[in-house]
Amino acid sequence: MTTTTSTHDALTRQAHNHRLPAWSRLAYWAQANADHHGHARAYPGELRTLLTTSTHEVSRAIRLAKDRHLLDPTSNAGCLVLPGHAHQPCDAHHREAP
Known about the structure:
Layout: H1 5-15, H2 22-33, E1 39-41, H3 46-51, H4 55-67, E2 79-81
Antiparallel strand pairs: 1-2
Helix pairs in contact: 1-2, 2-4
């Protein structure tokens, strides 16, 4: 998935908007950082830092984003997958550190 610079900047701003719920911010982050296969790889601790919260809360936010169909059910803390892009395998092997 390719985004223009202005779209990427707007999505990134929303991902850092602390007035939005964590699940929404993760969806914006995934859209801003997705590759052309719809996968947004996250390094250990990256999502915790973004949301300024615990690993447990990151997992909860991912689950809520999946429940709202903002992320594909295959998403995890190592790779957030945009809906409709799970057919492409993910090569991310990292997870959130405990």
